[in-house]
């Protein structure tokens, strides 16, 4: 996992599999400032970090992480990009992980 989203772009460009990076697209921090805009990930790369790459890292890429028939999936429909809703800052939170509709706890 990458703790500092400002280095995510360099890691992805180098071929490192980055999993779940917060604020990697906007690089806007809680105070509203944008840090290192040249290090921002594309929306596609950030989505892959939360889906396909995360499933690969967990060893379940054959079962999850991609939108295809038979694969496990959670679907979220957004009417606008989350970055607009929160003014460019995506609040940190641990998502509820589920298996067969039941919440998993650490």
Question: Brief overview, please?
Answer:
The protein has 106 residues and is mostly helical.
Task: List the topology elements.
Blueprint: H1 8-13, H2 43-50, H3 52-57, H4 82-85, E1 98-99, E2 102-103
Could you characterize what this model shows?
The chain has about 110 residues and is mainly alpha-helical. The chain has one domain. The chain is about 25% helix and about 5% strand. The chain contains four helices and two strands; from the N terminus they run H-H-H-H-E-E. It has a two-stranded antiparallel ribbon with strand order 1-2. A hairpin with a 2-residue loop joins strand 1 and strand 2.
Give the percentage of residues in beta strands.
Answer: under 5%
pLDDT averaged over residues: 68
Which range best describes the helical content: under 10%, 10-25%, 25-40%, 40-55%, 55-70% or over 70%? 10-25%
Low-confidence stretches: 85-94
Order of secondary-structure elements? HHHHEE
User: How many DSSP helices?
Assistant: 4
Main sheet strand line-up: 1-2
Largest sheet: 2 strands, antiparallel
């Amino acid at each position: 996992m990458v703790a500092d989203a400002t280095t995510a772009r360099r890691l992805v460009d180098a071929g490192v599999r980055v999993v779940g990076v917060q604020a990697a697209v906007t690089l806007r921090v809680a105070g509203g400032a944008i840090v290192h805009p040249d290090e921002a990930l594309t929306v596609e790369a950030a989505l892959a970090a939360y889906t396909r790459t995360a499933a690969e890292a967990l060893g379940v890429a054959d079962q999850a992480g991609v939108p295809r028939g038979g694969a496990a999936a959670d679907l979220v429909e957004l009417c606008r990009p989350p970055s607009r809703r929160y003014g460019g800052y995506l609040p940190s939170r641990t998502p509820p992980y589920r298996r067969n509709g039941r919440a998993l706890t650490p």
